[in-house]
Amino acid sequence: MEGDAFSAFAITALRLAGHLTAAGDQLAKPAGQTSARWQVLAAARRGGMSVAQIARALGLARQGVQRLADVLESEGLIAYADNPQHQRAKLVRLTEEGAARLGVIEIAQAGWADGLGAAFTSAELDAARSVMTRVMEMLEGGEAAGG
Amino acid sequence: MEGDAFSAFAITALRLAGHLTAAGDQLAKPAGQTSARWQVLAAARRGGMSVAQIARALGLARQGVQRLADVLESEGLIAYADNPQHQRAKLVRLTEEGAARLGVIEIAQAGWADGLGAAFTSAELDAARSVMTRVMEMLEGGEAAGG
DNA sequence: CCATATATGACAATATGTTGTCATTATGGA
DNA sequence: TCCATAATGACAACATATTGTCATATATGG
């Protein structure tokens, strides 16, 4: 029954996420950051997005990202810029200090990903990611059966 | 470069976990529970495990599971039984009320997993899970390169 | 038996994330 | 223009989870 295979898949995915978050925290630690802050810094570098837009891009609640962004702003890693499109929704941009911290993290992350990725083929990783993405799309869409 | 494929895999896994937790919360909601409590109830049904053992089995910090277990115990869904092997580490067991709640959740979960799993072959799901498991084992083991 | 190391529960501080609520700002239709 | 609706930031309450610390219980080696 695919239901059992799916349940096992879901349980494994949840445990994997815990390990990945912990690994991300370790990668971000030398820059004084965490996995969550790192995500916001990376979004800030893209630029042109408000906090609410970043939250949607990350699949997180607006309020949680707002709290992180406010902390990063108070530490000078990001800055709020006026948005000609919207008076309240300021645009988030990366400061020089923020870019420096993000750079430190991403150098470490690249080495980490290369090291772990070497144990897999790109095809394996992409196939697994494809399944994960399809599951996500189903969860975002129909809210599923049986609930 | 497999590093890039791995990075994309990791980002997708983190987002998927968020969706799965939200879905689990919805499944557990009719029983007045959450994803986290559900996991502890399921472990309690297996029986013969202390809080610390459950935490290790779930890949979570001992202290967090302890807090959940204390709440579940105060609500009468689990009970602490004396452990002949260890004076302090009581064994966690499911009460009748806990079993009833867990049953409600698992009926909903079975339908949910069948519905979502129908869009995949067991082979796809198992292959994806295999990759996730291998990543986890690498993360648990070496703590990886580049960090 | 004793000393050391490990495991466990208790407690606290902190980080992350969700939901709910509110006032304000945009947006779109009558 | 006016009004209803949606989006946004601010604030609060709560759930989850981590790390750190402490005292006590258990295990291990001498």
Q: Major beta sheet of chain A, specifics?
A: 3 strands, antiparallel
From the alpha-carbon coordinates, what is the Rg of chain A to the nearest angstrom?
Answer: 18 Å
Strand order of the largest sheet of chain A: 1-3-2
N to C succession of SSEs of chain A: HHEHHEEHH
Number of helices of chain A: 6
Helix/strand structural class of chain A: mainly alpha
What oligomerization state is this entry in? homodimer
Low-confidence stretches of chain A: 143-147
* Biggest interface, residues from each chain: A-B, 64 and 63 residues
Shape label of chain A: globular
Mean pLDDT of chain A: 90
Helix content of chain A: 55-70%
Give a topology summary.
2 copies of one chain form a homodimer.
Chain A: H1 2-28, H2 35-46, E1 49-50, H3 51-58, H4 62-74, E2 78-83, E3 86-94, H5 96-117, H6 122-141
Antiparallel strand pairs in A: 1-3, 2-3
Helix pairs in contact in A: 2-4, 2-5, 3-4
The structure holds a DNA duplex (30 and 30 nucleotides).
